[in-house]
Amino acid sequence: MSNHAYMITNELWTWTSENRRGNYHFLSVPDDIEKEIRTHAAVRRLELGLPTKRGWGAVKVEATIGKTVWQTSMFPGIDENAYVLPVKASVRKAEGIVVGNKVSCKLELL
């Protein structure tokens, strides 16, 4: 793994919007790597001559669960000090994971 890649294992959880248009599935990113992620994102954006923070504080990542690899963005959760990784339906289906499963995921910061 590169210097900006992490392995996380956490329980898949769901959030339902108030308007009930759907459920959103997430993995929480452990607090112990949050500061590294935030720092990497700010430095990377400075290198590119961009504002230090993307919309909602999003951080681009390449995520790998099992054999499925995709690019997405992590977002600060309700706590603002922890990130959440959205796990889309196609990934959950391909890897056979459901809410409550412990899921291991490789995250590479882009």
From TrEMBL:
Source superkingdom: Bacteria
Gene3D superfamilies per record: AF2212/PG0164-like
Designated name of the protein: DUF1905 domain-containing protein
Native organism: Parasphingorhabdus marina DSM 22363
